Structure formats: structure tokens, C-alpha cells
Amino acid sequence: MRQDINDILSAQVWDIFNKTYDGIRVLDMNLRQLEQICRAYGFTKFLTESKGQAKLAKTEKELGIVTVGVSLAPYSLGNLKSSTSMHTIDLCINATPSCKKSCVVQYGGNPAYLSGKQNAMLRRKELLVDDPCLFFAMYFRYLELKSAYCIKHGLLLSNRGNISSDIRYEDVQCSMDNFQTSFSNLVFHHCARTSMHLDDKDTLVRVMPYDYTKHYDRRQDWHYHKVYSVTDHDASKAETAIDNGLPLAVVFDTARGKPLPDVYTIGRFTLPVVDGDEHDYLPAHGRKPHIVGLRFKHQAKHKKHEREAVLAKHILSGFVKMAG
Ligand code: SF4
Fold it and tell me: CA spacing 20 to 30 A to 307: which of 206, 207, 248, 314?
């Protein structure tokens, strides 16, 4: 049996304000102390940063926004069990067989570093499953330090919590000193404060956290921008997502360097397509209904005939749409 990580994370309030590790309050820790916890769990870096991830690096180059996030081993990889139910924890319960096979963060990138990267993703997931309160306290503290660094150096900060997972951060409740709020609210605070000097006539000018999601029933938040990833032929999910205020992300069979379609029809909506490969910062495309178009990324190890076969299979499953 699989258990959705969101059921565990939304079942209680996490007291990250008072969380300690080895007798030290996590929210008082410096980077060296935080890294000691990472090492104890078998990895070195908690945050994935612009400089270590090609798509996030594009955001920094194109828009001047530093983006951080967390890469965790997706779906039920690692077969980690919940200590209470003994069910296997799933980090993206709505993943389809097609997206699992082509999960860009899990299987993409330089083959020389793949096994090291996958191992670190699994160890971070172990930390989350083993001690969610410690995970969220560390995440908060890393963002707090990163936000302070960005302010000091005149940089903007955004956050993509789900680089390879589908956690409903808006449903993760955390208690602080004298208030309780969602983790996504806390993250917004750390991002927005790096853009307080910008013109605030348009609230979207505030740099905010964002995510792709396969939970079509999530709702748009003013402080946490979400885009629904279409991965099958069920247009009713896409329609629900749009009704909930979520733009759509669609993977097309368009080749690298070729233009995406201008518009695309799903269910009762015909929507403009923006190029989602130019950078990763989804809030830049605004809140009007639209499609974030992405080109299908082949695995580097696949030869031409394998690429054709994989693409044909994904078109059949609805994970990839035909552009023409
Ligand atoms: S839902 Fe996203 S993170 Fe999960 S397997 Fe599919 S592509 Fe990867």
C-alpha cells in the first residue's frame, strides 16, 4: 500500500520554532551546524540552487531571480515506510507511469553525476520521512539565511519547493513563537522581503514561491503560484484546475529550438501558450488562464530509435501533446 505524504504532513501542526537537534535550536543554527545534520543523513546540500540546476540557472540569467528548492526522490522511490502505518510513502501520488519514466530531475542531467544526485535525493527524502518537523525547521532556517544573503547583495529570491515532488505546502501547518501558519506563507515571507524595494502597485511584482503540481484540485494562492501539469487525456482535470485559478503546463512534441504553438485547446478552453523553457519562474506569466508550453526532454543515453519509441508512447498516454 502507498500513503500520500500530504496525509502525514497535514495531520498535525509542526512546532518548528522550538525544534532542536543535538540540543541546539534549529532556527538558531548557522550554515555549518545545518550541514552537520545533512551529513548525518548522508547528503551534503539541503537546497538545490540556481547554479546547480540548469532550468533554475536560466531564471537567474533571464530575470535576475535566485531560485532555491528541494530535490527529493520522487513518487515511492526508495520504498521508505511510514513509521505509523508501515505503508510506502509516496511524494507525488498523482504521478502517471509516463511522467515517472521521464521524470526530468530524477533521470535528466549529466549521466556522470546521476547516481550521486539520485542518492542525495533519496537521503533528503529519508530526512523528511524520518522527522518532518526537523525537515521543515531546517528548510525554514536555510531560507531565512538565504533571504538575508540576497537582501545584503541586492538579489531577488524565489523558491520552488517541489522540484521533484508534489507536496501541498499550503496544507503544512507550522507553529512559530506566538502564531500558526502554513509553510507556504512562511516561504513567501522570506521571498517577498527580498523584493520590498520594488514598486508594489502590482502584487505580482513581489517575488514569490511557485510550483508545478499534478493535484488539479489545488487552489491558486496570492502568495504561492501553482501551475497544473497536464499528463493524461482527462480534460476535466485541466478544466477543474483552470476553474481553480491554476494555469496549465503542457509538454509538446516540439523539437528543441523550434517554436511552440501559439494557442492550444484543452476541453472547453483554447488558451495562449507561453514558452516555459525560457526560464523556470512561473509567476512571471501572470494569472490569466494560459498554458506554459514545454518541449519534451529526451534522456541523454537514448539513441534515435529509442527516442522515437518513447515519444510515441508518451503521446499515446497523453503525457506529451502533438503541437501541430
Ligand atoms: S509527478 Fe513530477 S516529480 Fe513526480 S514522477 Fe512525475 S514528473 Fe517526477
Answer: 248
**Tens digits of residue pLDDT in 201-218:** 554 467 899 999 999 999
Q: Is the CB of 125 under 6 A from ligand 1?
A: no
User: Are 34 and 131 members of one domain?
Assistant: yes
Long-range contacts of 273-280 (CB under 8 A, 24+ apart): 276/249, 278/58, 278/62, 279/55, 279/58, 279/59, 279/61, 279/62, 279/63, 280/55, 280/56, 280/58, 280/59, 280/67, 280/160
Residue 264 lies in a domain: yes
Percent of residues, the chain, with pLDDT higher than 90: 78
Residue 313 contacts residue 298 (beta carbons within 8 Å): no
CB 292 within 8 A of CB 227: yes
pLDDT surpasses 90 at 131: yes
Q: Whose CA is nearest to atom 5 of ligand 1?
A: 100
Task: Quickly state the pLDDT bin for 57 (edges 50, 70, 90).
Answer: very high
- Look at the block and give the residue holding cell 531577488: 156
- Dist. CA 17 → ligand 1 center (Å): 31
Question: Which residue lies with its CA nearest to atom 8 of ligand 1?
Answer: 103
Choose the final residue of a domain: 148, 180, 198.
198
